[in-house]
Amino acid sequence: MANYLIKRIAMLFPLLLGITLITFTVIHLAPGEPVEMQTAMSPKVSAASRARLREFYGLDKPLHVQYLRWLGHLAHLDFGRSFAPDNRPVTDKIVERIPITLSLNVIALILEFGLAIPIGILAAVRRDSLLDRGISVFVFVGFAVPTFWLALLCMYFFGVKFSWLPISGIHSLGYEKFSAAGRVWDLAKHLVLPISIATFGSLAGLSRYMRSTMLEVLSQDYITTARAKGLQERVVIFKHALKNALLPVITLLGFSLPGLIGGSVIFETIFAIPGMGQLFYQGVMARDYPLVMGILVIGACLTLVGNLLADLCYAVADPRIRHGRS
Amino acid sequence: MSEPGRGPFQEFWRRFTANRFAVAALCIIVALFVLSVCASFLTPYDPDAIDAWHVLLPPSAAHFFGTDELGRDVFTRVVYGARVSLKVGFVAVGIAVAIGTVVGLVSGYYGGWVDTVLMRLVDIMLCFPTFFLILAVIAMLEPSIWYIMVIIGLTGWMGVARLVRAEVLSLKSRDFVSAARVLGASDRRIIFRHILPNALSPVLVSATLGVAGAILTESALSFLGIGVQPPTPSWGNILTSGKDYIEFAWWLSLFPGLAILVTVLSYNLVGEGIRDALDPRKQQ
């Protein structure tokens, strides 16, 4: 196990380097520069002060120098200073936004797995029944529905028509005066819609996947043997089949992270949630290079860590992997 | 089992048409094509014609889907929006499939360090939250539908590359490929003549599902205001005004969203249908 762990962690470094390289290239190859954006509106800005601004941001150096410099700072977890007027360190800006996005996504992830696994099992066990067909319809609609449209519809029904839930932000006005319980309730009310929509968006794929792995396991010989032994169906399914059917689902845990984080731009923008997605959107619009690069790197690293954790879980569950045989 | 006198395509078609949902979905897709080609004959309105006297009207016999905040006919705009969606879906997926196929072929056929480098590149690209990457690039470029298609394509080839590579690896050691090599066929001939045609069926499935994904991405980008720019109608940017007027005009939100839902659903169903029809384990 230790060997396996060391090998997996050693493999992270070239990937990390690749992530920084792609991030840097993508951002710097795009035509136009932040300095032009900032000065385009004021024709009085002289060429000399433009040059000074470029020098201030380090944009006058050759690209490889800029990259190595940025990489050197990254090694100390320093993402540079934001190009925005507040000129704050990017790390601070991101760190204050991470908790909300991450906790939203983790809650959505837990709900997603907690719902999709039973749904998938149920559909597989009652294959071709009315229930299975109903679930299939739900799955296909879930695949096809645009998240932002679903968010709009929910805002219309729950927010506008019935006024049950707030539709924007994470706090009500006067939040500071609420009691502790009142604050939790207020926060919960604001987050119900975004979390439900984030969960729904990825529920379909996962439950479909769970159904197919479960069906595959159920068609294997050892399951027939278990049934032939006269074991109860409940025991066959939960004790014999489920464990093996869950294995491939674990790897999906890591893969679903980039989708969730990517999706957060959309629902954070719609629901005005001050998270990383919203920050990224603002950063992109203002061409705040250090901020955009910082969030891209952190987003990719979160995925990397998610994949690593998923692989480790897999190795713990499946001895063939950790002993290097497959 | 295939019947005598039938080619593989007829066999595939027979199995595909046995799936009612897939056939219905295919009809919808064909109808959408016809709709977007004949858009100007289908509706009496100009998609960009502003009519200050008929602003935010609810659906009626004159305006099936109502009118928007500038008095434009929503039905007309949704029909014209189909053009954008179809164009984006096909061009973006075409780019993704082309890149993915080449990378997968090269990687699987040559193996060694070429394979290692290319597959690590795939791993790295898969780490990025795709939507972040697309957003970052699109927002820095001049708004244009062509950039959107290219960028969606450039960030969507990794799955195809992995699929093709796996196919190539399993085909490479098969007898007919060895035979071709012994007969002195060049690498290029073996790759394009013998391996590629056999590796294409999983790609077809993934491409069909990819069209659905690209349509969803484009509509999300347009919804955020960095995709297709008004006045050109796209389902995503009609929904942007839907959001702004959600308290007064539900029809602005409902119809373009339904259009996206039905279209994406159809591509997914056709993709699943192709997959089942090609799967030899699912004999009917």
From TrEMBL, chain A:
InterPro entries: BPD_transp_1_N (IPR045621), MetI-like (IPR000515), MetI-like_sf (IPR035906). CDD domains: TM_PBP2. The keyword Transmembrane helix applies. One of its GO terms (biological process) is transmembrane transport. Its main location: membrane. Residues 98-310 form the ABC transmembrane type-1 domain. GO terms for cellular component: plasma membrane. It is a multi-pass membrane protein. The chain crosses the membrane at residues 12-31, 102-125, 137-158, 187-206, 245-271, 291-317. It is found in: Cell membrane. The keyword Ligase does not apply. Keywords: Cell membrane, Membrane, Transmembrane, Transmembrane helix, Transport. Belongs to the binding-protein-dependent transport system permease family. PANTHER family: INNER MEMBRANE ABC TRANSPORTER, OLIGOPEPTIDE TRANSPORT SYSTEM PERMEASE PROTEIN APPB. This is Peptide ABC transporter permease.
From TrEMBL, chain B:
SUPFAM superfamilies: MetI-like. NCBIfam families: Opp4C. Coiled coil: none annotated. This is Peptide ABC transporter permease. One of its GO terms (cellular component) is plasma membrane. The keyword Hydrolase does not apply. It is a multi-pass membrane protein. It is found in: Cell membrane. Keywords: Cell membrane, Membrane, Transmembrane, Transmembrane helix, Transport. It comes from the Bacteria. InterPro entries: BP-dependent_transpt_permease (IPR050366), MetI-like (IPR000515), MetI-like_sf (IPR035906), Oligopeptide_permease_AppC (IPR053523), OppC_N (IPR025966). Belongs to the binding-protein-dependent transport system permease family. The chain crosses the membrane at residues 21-42, 88-110, 117-139, 145-164, 203-228, 248-270.
